[in-house]
Amino acid sequence: MPNAFGTGLLLRCRMRRIAGPQGRRRRWRRTFKEAPGTEFELKADLVLLALGFLHVEHGPIVEQLGLATDDRGNLVVDANFQTNVPGVFAAGDTVAGASLVVRAIAQGRQMAAAVDAFLRRLPQT
Q1: What pLDDT score does 30 carry?
Q2: I need a labelling partner for 9 at 20 to 30 A (CA). Which of 1, 2, 60, 79 fits?
């Protein structure tokens, strides 16, 4: 099924593993190492990203779609969570920066309602 732009998405994925303790004191430092041989592709019509307290790494899709970012690197959205590209929505850490999961969940629910309203306004085919 095509997305709002008339095309499906093909995601190229690669797993990363959290590296263990480092340094003399064995303090835990969150570092990620790519896991060789874990590459796979997924076809999708909708992608929702759920990230932790690390700053969001947007990847090439932000540049490819021409999504606007603020001076902290967060995506810029309007009151309906829509980016500067019609039909592309964002919420949670990618918009507000790292925060509590309950805030991301609340924004996700609000964004879902905004996406539903957007899709209901599209012409029926």
Answers
A1: 60
A2: 79
pLDDT band at 1 (very low <50, low <70, confident <90, very high): very low
The CATH number of residue 91's host domain is 3.50.50.60
- Calculate the CA 96 to chain-centre distance: 12
Range(s) of the domain holding residue 64: 48-125
Collect all residues with Cβ–Cβ distance below 8 Å to 13 and sequence separation of at least 6.
38, 39, 40, 41, 42
Note if the pTM is more than 0.90.
Answer: no
Residues 69 and 31 in one domain: no
Query: Across the chain, what does the average pLDDT equal?
Result: 79
25-71 residue pLDDT tens: 555 556 777 888 888 887 877 777 665 556 677 778 888 999 999 88
**107 lies in the same domain as 56:** yes
